[in-house]
Amino acid sequence: MKHYHYIFTGNGLSALLTLFEMIQSGRFSDKKILLLDSDTKNKNDRTWCFWDSENLFNGITTKNWQQAWFKSENFINKLELFPYSYKMVKSADFYKLMFDTILQHKNIEIFQDEVLEFSESGNNCVVQTKTKSFTCNQIFNSIYSSELVNAQTKFPLVQQHFIGWFVKSKEVVFTEDCPTFMDFSIAQKGNTRFMYILPTSSTEALLEYTLFSKDLLSKEAYETEIENYIKKLGITEYEIVEKERGNIPMTCFPFWKNNSKNIINIGSAGGWSKASTGYTFKNSVKKSRELVRFLQTENDFTKFHKINKFWYYDLLLIDILYQTNQHGSTIFSNMFKSGKASLIFKFLDEETSFWEDLQVIWMCPQRLFIKALLKRIF
Description:
Layout: E1 2-9, H1 13-25, E2 33-37, E3 47-52, E4 61-65, E5 67-71, E6 76-80, E7 85-90, H2 91-102, E8 108-112, E9 115-121, E10 124-129, E11 133-141, H3 146-150, E12 158-169, E13 180-183, E14 192-199, E15 204-213, H4 219-232, E16 238-250, E17 263-265, H5 281-295, H6 309-323, H7 328-338, H8 341-348, H9 354-363, H10 366-377
Parallel strand pairs: 1-2, 1-11, 2-8, 5-13, 11-17
Antiparallel strand pairs: 3-7, 4-7, 5-6, 9-10, 10-11, 12-15, 12-16, 13-14, 14-15
């Protein structure tokens, strides 16, 4: 069996970002590294959006917005995002940048195969694919296991699920320089439901019908709502250029407790998606940087994760969305009606002081959060 210093089981967003940070650091060029996945990652299979104040991935950013609409049943707010901008990155562009960088380094190999299992044995790890076995010193696993979360009830799972259509309309209906961050004016039907619009021109946009809820819908249910919304916008003739579908786990389940000395779970498998929002790209950038800094001084993965105050904030919100899902629109509407977008983004990036935390928390329906807190305590 061929031996490596590091093996990545799965080569999605978190794995590629972590490997990219390892390359950028210049500290791992003497380490043999293997990327394992059954997918070639050479097509546009998803769209990532994130707010940014530090010029992240400007070279592959499709669109960059300085303002955005927030809409509820009762009001419309045009959010000024400064010092942040809201950015859109297509996965095909991201994959190309990552693999173009990786292929320049002879110490990194890529093998396309399905990972069947992996385990730790003493100071080494073993990875079994459909056709081969490999050994290594340490594993970065990004293969998500829903069984772990579903087998318990202490940490509920709310799913962020959506279908999106890239459409090109005959009519000029989109405001190219202003996306719709959340539109809660649509029927909630006992859930937390909103439309999300990312315009790339006055006639082209990505429209996503998104839910934060326990249960998924049929494909037809999402697409019917998108069709209804398109009519509401006044579009009578359009072309569907591309479709995408996704499901992001929103949970405070302690994935890190399944890390061992030589195996670490990353990405969704490690709880890297921000539990309260499902935003993954920016959070994964931050986590991958932390992990690569950690690797330069430590080699025991059980020491990597630390709980902070934001984990507790997220836990209460997920409890509310799980138990009373219909209140989601009220919570987000309260935040974006009275608050500055920059403060909320800073809070969601987990970079606020305790005083700033209180300013954001005070915007939320306090009765809901006090009730959730008391239920957690008792």
